[in-house]
Model the fold of this input.
Amino acid sequence: MVIRKGLKKLPIDRARAGDSSIPISVIIAAKNEAANLQKNLGFIQNQNYQDFEIVLVNDNSSDETHSVMTDFAARDERIRVLSLDDSLSGKKEALKAGIDAANYERLVFTDADCQVEAEWLSGFADAFDRGGDFVIGYGAYRLNDSWFSSMYSFDAFRSAMLYFSAAANGLPYMCVGRSMGYTRSLFQNSEGFASYAHIESGSDDLFLQSVKDSAHIEMIPAAVSYSEPPTSFGRWLIQRKRHLGAGIHYPKSVLALLIIYEGSNILLPIILVLLLMSENQFLSLFSIAIILRVTLFYLNTQTFSRLVKSNDDLSQLWWTEYPMSWLNALISMNIGLKKKEAWTTRR
Done:
């Protein structure tokens, strides 16, 4: 019910208004992303929003990333290219370089492997226009024919549903660097990434944690970026380790709520099986409670699907919630959460 309450506070169609005209800097940090830049940068260029620049930051790439960037810049005066000094490396350093070099106060971030619709930037502009200095968008994974990749795509959908709802209820705890924005003043007036510079991930959600008490946070679930899901279990593990590695640094109150939520997904089926085996008198009542919970979760996924207006209806995979909770729990117990991982699966 708490999730549903939060979802009802999120307005539909915020990313479609496009009435703002404030200038925006789009920042993309990339390492060995030549192919993805070649494939996806055009989606940023072809926004129906007019007043923006694109700041591309090359993080010591060993492929053709820099030449691809400069080729785009030669054909589009809105694009500027930076390269990190050899003494610097990592996504946080690349993002900081892009922030320092940006011409405009409002900053929007995405990744080289993301595709966006023409209205994407308009949604951020409208959110900034409403006074937002931190804007949470939605980073989706495309739905494909692989059952495993589809489950991963839905897990990201479910995660977004939870963090959008929590933010709407006054408890912002997560966002994704594939679709987010904030003002340069917010970054400069805070510690930036300094307090968690030793953590490979966290340039998105941990920064949100550090400024949430002082920031005016806006949410635009319809501002969607699309990435391809990992195609192998190994790549999925790398991404999961990185995400969980940042998650252990969330406030204890947020961690407690997430553990309760995921724990209930794990325990409810176990309790149901035990009651079935023992023919317990509470079996009927507990069965009704589970049916109501599953029904409510299904309705929440339908609501969130309408809010994000995604090209892929991931809500149809609502039934994978319990298997993914089990899988996430097993990974959390068996991987070294504090082991450093590269900030991209291709690094």
Q: What stands out?
A: The longest strand covers residues 217-227. The beta strands are 24-30, 52-58, 79-83, 106-109, 115-116, 134-141, 180-183, 217-227. Residues 335-347 have pLDDT under 50 and may be disordered. The two ends are 41 Å apart (CA to CA).
